[in-house]
Amino acid sequence: MMGPAHSLSGAAAWLGVGAAAAATGYAMPWPVLVVGALITAGAALAPDLDHKSATISRAFGPVSKALCGIVDDLSHAVYKATRGPGDPRRNGGHRTLTHTWLWAVLIGAGASAAAVFGGRWAVLTILFVHLVLAVEGLLWRAARVSSDVLVWLLGATSAWILAGVLDKPGNGSDWLFTGPGQEYLWLGLPIILGALVHDIGDALTVSGCPILWPIPLGRKRWAPLGPPKAMRFRAGSWVELKILMPAFMVLGGVGAAGALNFI
User: Fold this and answer.
1) How far apart are alpha carbons 245 and 172 in whole angstroms?
2) The model's pTM
3) What is the mean pLDDT of the chain?
4) Is 54 left (phi over 0), alpha (psi -120 to 50) or beta?
């Protein structure tokens, strides 16, 4: 899928989690619901860090472009080193390492560890990165015509304000993980969810997605999973634009209403 659909699906997924959490007695304070949805919207773009033409490659100028090149090379090297006898040869690393459940878990766990042990500046950095990506995904038309610096300023300002809101008692810095020193441990959850939702979205497209790596399936270790080929679509097609994106908006609205106990 394309960037806007990925971000919308990520935000909708977190709002759905918010509704489920409310139903099971772990209701999210509204700042956690909002911040989590924005982080998930941004994190749903992150697996394309292995693609030099993806939205994320443009998000942070030369830094993200260079990082995309490094991740692409790393992903390709891991693919070549671990491919099974049934896996084809490849010329690049797109839709390999960063499109797996293992990558999602590692990135989310790393973010949680950074938030807990790195203190306020680590939290602000995590928020800034994902808020910039959320703007690039959810407001992509405006982001394309505006200056990168303005998008970065919006991300930095929003990160500072939202962190201040979360820090207030009862607003959710210690949501779900309430032990001493566990503030912001939950930040890794929307990052994991965003990456997994991205992978599921890509699995619906023609090429599929090797979500289960490194678990082998037959002679393949990088088996591209997805529904039957007749049910798949091309990224950017009318199915994505006319059906899936409106559906994500509706599901997100329903999830938000459930999370806030309006339904």
Assistant:
1) 29
2) 0.94
3) 93
4) beta
